[in-house]
Amino acid sequence: MTLTTKINLALSAVFVAGLCITGYISRAILQENAKQEVITHAGLMMESAYAARSYTIQQVRPLLADRLDDVFLPQTVPSYAATQQFTQLRQTHPEYWYKESTLNPTNPANRSTEWEADIIQQFRNNAELNEVTGERQTPTGPSLYLARPMRVNEPGCLNCHGLPGDAPPTMMSLYGSNNGFSWKMNEVVGSQIVSVPLSVPYERAKYAFRVFMVSQMAVLAAIFVVVNVALRLIVIRPVRQMATIADQVSSGDLEVPEFDGDGADEIAQLGHSFNRMRRSVEKAMEILGR
After folding, report:
1. Tens digit of pLDDT for each residue in 78-90?
2. CA distance 29 to 207
3. Domain check: are 257 and 273 in the same one?
4. With contact defined as beta carbons under 8 Å apart, do 180 and 238 qualify?
5. At which of 161, 178, 198 does a domain end?
6. Looking at the structure, do residues 77 and 61 belong to the same domain, yes or no?
7. Most buried residue among 10, 21, 72, 174 by CB atoms closer than 10 A?
8. Which helix (H) or strand (E) is 119 found in, with range?
9. Last residue of a domain, one of 198, 222, 248
10. Contacts by residues 13-20 (CB-CB < 8 Å, ≥ 24 positions apart)
11. What is the predicted pLDDT for the residue at 261?
């Protein structure tokens, strides 16, 4: 096995190991960054829902409060405003999703599904837990969900969700008296859940990973070529020249020119030593010839 082959095998092993290690690390970092980007978007959407709820409580409900004795207006319900806002968003971005999932809702459309009920149960079991994130498969691909608990923090909530007899008659006539009651103060009754698609940021992460790996392989290939060219010019060719001269001298050809090695590197020093040895051999052969 030639010296070039040995060095190339060593370089190949180092390059492959380097590609595997950097590829694994970079892929994990890019995917984590993509996930954090989605979590940030979900957090912004959640804050947008909070803003819609606050707007309803502070500005819409006071304007319509006098009409609630005659007709129940869902526009005065904070959750209605947040849900309607996202309903409008889903007309152009159907992959985004928001729900105020409730175990015992007034509106049956807000009733929790099985996986939503599991999230709510986590909040009910752990009073210190304020946020849950996770991934789930949807018809449009993988999505990340961000969930926060819905607690009964204001006594006014119990006016509609405490005892059925205390609820506004107009609300009772619209939704009935079977659902949305017996809530208690500080009880977790549901969860606000935002779902954001992962496919787009994951595709961007995959593209960035491919570009990075191709660029890295191109750089390593260039290094491989440069090392081989330098090895051939600086080491292999001078050593072969010295080997050829040594063979000719050992065969009795003393007319072969000396090795021409200029410079101060190790190969040049080896060449100088080789020439001194050759001259010593020539003198020894002259002495023996006499």
Report:
1. 788 888 888 888 8
2. 13
3. yes
4. no
5. 198
6. yes
7. 72
8. helix 114-125
9. 198
10. 15/220, 15/224, 18/220, 19/213, 19/216, 19/217, 19/220
11. 67
